[in-house]
Amino acid sequence: EVALNIPDKQVDSVCPYCGVGCQLTYNVKDNKILYVEGRDGPANHGRLCVKGRYGFDYAHHPHRLTKPLIRRAGMPKTGEFVMDPDRVLEVFREATWEEALALAGGTLARIRDTHGGAALAGFGSAKGSNEEAYLFQKLVRTGFGTNNVDHCTRLCHASSVSALLEGIGSGAVSNPVMDVMRAEVIVVIGANPTVNHPVAATWIKNAVKEGAKLILLDPRRSELARHAHRSLQFKPDTDVALLNALMHVIVSERLVDEAFIASRTIGYAELEANVAEYSPEAMAPICGIDAETIRYVARLYATSKGSMILWGMGISQHIHGTDNARCLIALALMTGQIGRPGTGLHPLRGQNNVQGASDAGLIPMMLPDYQRVDNPAARAKFEAAWNTTLDPKPGLTVVEIMDAIDAGQIRGMYIMGENPAMSDPDANHARAALAALKHLVVQDIFLTETAYLADVILPASAFPEKTGTFTNTDRLVQLGRQAIDPPGEAKQDLWIIQQMAQQLGLPWNYGHVSEVFDEMRRTMASIGGITWERLESEGAVVYPCVAEGDAGEPVVFTDTFPREGGRARFVPADIIPADERPDAEYPMVLITGRQLEHWHTGSMTRRATVLDALEPDPVALVHPLDLERLGVKPGDAITIASRRGEVVLWARADDSSPVGAIFVPFCYYEAAINRLTNAALDPFGKIPEFKYCAIKVTSGGEV
Ligand code: SF4
């Protein structure tokens, strides 16, 4: 039996889950992954978390789509998902690739020709490679003729990116995670790295052991609190009050870095005037943190030799997400805690390639490398490179596209590897919108909740079944290598995108994936110096890497910021309350997020044997005092309702959230919590307010 489990090949690749970008090796026998081992990559040095190590056998799951599917005539799009592969053929019939592609692409082409490109939209994927993201956005822009292309960055860090582009001219991190080992003070705000970036959390813990002081700022207490020097559990939705109070202390006690402000920034006077009203004494009752603790943390951050801020979606997923990030940027700028090792700003990117997909232009207002579509010079460059004419109007974002379907403006969509029926806010509305499309093409590896609403489903390849580049949260471009073949008639995504492009009249015929990467290098200065050969030999290269032979720059903004005049900009922020506050009818607060064992909408990890065995059921994390008040015992069913819907889950006693706030992971199709969330958007990043909406909870219900 031991001999049977000896791999016949080992393939070096990267983890398909989070943005940490751990390098791993697939051990394969007879086209099956036996086990996974960590490699000595720059981000993980051999470490893997439970998802990276055990979350691989989804690729072999019997639910895999192996043939193109076409919705049967007259079969209604009910919006109700059935997780039963035996019933797939009640709704869909199997088809040849020729028939499916002709119907999928041909119908989109007819909509374009009849109603114009603005009647179409596409969602690409942060789980696909850079090359897939690049070709997908190119297809939408040149084949559909619209900028209506987006992906899940809109749901995670769009507000952070909006503030970073505005303030410092670049949406990516200034320093890698590993710089926590060089920091004296580490601030983690609105993030739970132990759960969402587990290997990054291990480096934070190592840094604390080496003497760094960890400051946690979060309404929810995370496992990292055990390692924290101070843990400030401020009231939900009061980020700007707390951060402005910290800045007030730094200004009033003259702890600012005057030389840095004078030589490298603009707009400080407005910022200083704005924070004058936010004294710790005035903000303490609002944010729930006493004034002396606010003063202590402000002094510590400002006066250390190196302070680094890492943040997550607790900052970004608010209607004031951009304001939250503006405050973090201002903190770093006013103290000069940026531009050196062991300092800086690090928005922890979620998916394994959300950084790369955004870099590659999978966003409606930007061409690749964040070149604005409404900038004539940028457009001209891509028109020449792609031999086409581009739409100058920025496209619609994820939630705006759903609203545009309601309005009859968008009639057809192509969705590759995303699951908006689970991930969008107000998911009942999102499902109704998807069902209302005249034509929906979904390219995926499973019959997801979104694919269930499709007209045509194109069976695609799982992560270990293809080769491509992936960019982690540190701006490291890494090579993922094909380890196994796709099952049945499933095809590689790059092939499918090109076939769809041909149906839309684009004569694409890229050979090896490196040909796409080479085209990207020619149009994206930031990665212009990264050759495929170097990726093959080194496995990972950090950008900016402008010319061949450049080492790449792990720490940026050392001398200048990529903004006008080379200076960063302070942008003041004031308190804006959440869109939907608790009231008599809906008296509690819902916070959504992820679990360690499951990934986003669960389509992969809930089909990974070990991970689903660890967390098999939909749960809500409820404070014990709330359980007592509700008359509910741990393990009982509870019904959670908002103004938009209700779900039933199992209650789990958990005091990490404050009394009155319930945390629910969004990975469970049986209790899709995004049926309840609020689609109100941050006006700049257009990100929904996943971290706060009003709910009521009652005992009982059927899970
Ligand atoms: Fe994968 Fe992230 Fe875990 Fe690393 S930390 S193994 S990249 S999920």
TrEMBL record:
A Gene Ontology molecular function term for this protein is: formate dehydrogenase (NAD+) activity
EC number of the protein? 1.17.1.9
Source domain of life is Bacteria
UniProt keywords (A-Z) are:
4Fe-4S, Iron, Iron-sulfur, Metal-binding, Oxidoreductase, Repeat
Asked if the record carries the keyword Repeat, the reply is: yes
Q: Which residues form the 4Fe-4S Mo/W bis-MGD-type domain?
A: 8-63
**What does the sequence similarity comment in the record state about its family?**
In the C-terminal section; belongs to the prokaryotic molybdopterin-containing oxidoreductase family.
Name of the featured protein: Formate dehydrogenase subunit alpha
- Of the parent protein, the shown chain spans 211 to 913 of 933
